[in-house]
Specification:
This protein is mostly helical. It is built from nine helices and no strands.
């Protein structure tokens, strides 16, 4: 579990690093400019991080399923090598899917007023600025929705249905609380991530929903990576214990310095 959380933290660092610096530049200068190639590169890393997180959250749900539904087989099923392979597959799939999108986008022709009413280079604003046909990229997005969104979401839902059925059959209330506590952090992250993602990309949009879509985009590009560590920290006894020990040590150091004066 901690290995997968470390991989999630890498994604949470990559996404704001790709989005936030240019966003601050736009806010401070009341607008900004970026080359077409720079825009496509920004979209590539954004898309890679989002696709990776879709797959990683799916793997993490399977990890929780094995830990709760088949605890005696957990150490033999989720070995260190297998965890590394699963994480590597998530990264490869994420970067590969993003690369396919960016290759198709780079073949488009952009002309006219290339003004994007957004704080980063997202797919929809890029397609709106294209002068050539966007049928190929739209077909590509439609086809890739199944392996990228619906299949991972289906695996997560099925995993948690089995987890809930297993937990209900536990005899001890303490065991139930411990099992629910183990899954609550991951389930919270999944709910926030998929709600914002599906709201932005799946639901039809009009002029009146543009600002709301930008707000949701801000949630999953900046806010979600910010709160992920907080969610896992506040709901994890080991991390809270380590943090408390660190605070106590800092308090001791502060007292020593004051005493020496």
């Amino acid at each position: 579990m901690y290995f997968f959380i470390s991989q999630l933290s890498i994604s949470d660092i990559l996404l704001p690093t790709d989005i936030v610096p240019n966003m601050f530049h736009i806010l401070l200068n009341n607008g900004g400019s970026i080359t077409v190639n720079g825009c496509i590169i920004q979209f590539y890393f954004f898309c890679s991080a989002e696709a990776f997180e879709c797959f990683l959250l799916t793997v993490m749900s399977y990890d929780r399923y094995v830990a709760i539904c088949n605890p005696l087989r957990y150490t033999s099923t989720m070995t260190s090598d297998r965890c590394v392979v699963l994480a590597a597959m998530c990264w490869v799939l994420g970067f590969s899917i993003a690369l396919m999108y960016c290759i198709t986008i780079s073949m488009l022709t952009f002309c006219g007023p290339n003004i994007i009413d957004h704080f980063f280079c997202d797919l929809a604003p890029l397609l709106e600025r294209a002068c050539s046909s966007t049928y190929a990229i739209e077909l590509e997005v439609f086809i890739m929705c199944f392996p990228l969104l619906f299949i991972p979401l289906t695996v997560i839902i099925v995993s948690y249905i089995n987890i809930i059925v297993t937990i209900v059959h536990f005899q001890s209330n303490i065991s139930r609380q411990k099992a629910f506590s183990t899954c609550s952090s991951h389930l919270t992250v999944v709910s926030i991530f998929y709600f914002t993602l599906l709201s932005v990309y799946m639901f039809p949009k009009g002029e009146e929903t543009l600002n709301f879509s930008k707000l949701l985009s801000l949630l999953y590009t900046v806010f979600t990576p910010l709160i992920n560590p907080i969610i896992y920290s506040l709901r994890n006894k080991d991390i809270k214990k380590s943090l408390q020990e660190l605070i106590n040590k800092c308090g001791l150091f502060s007292n020593d310095i004051l005493f020496s004066r």
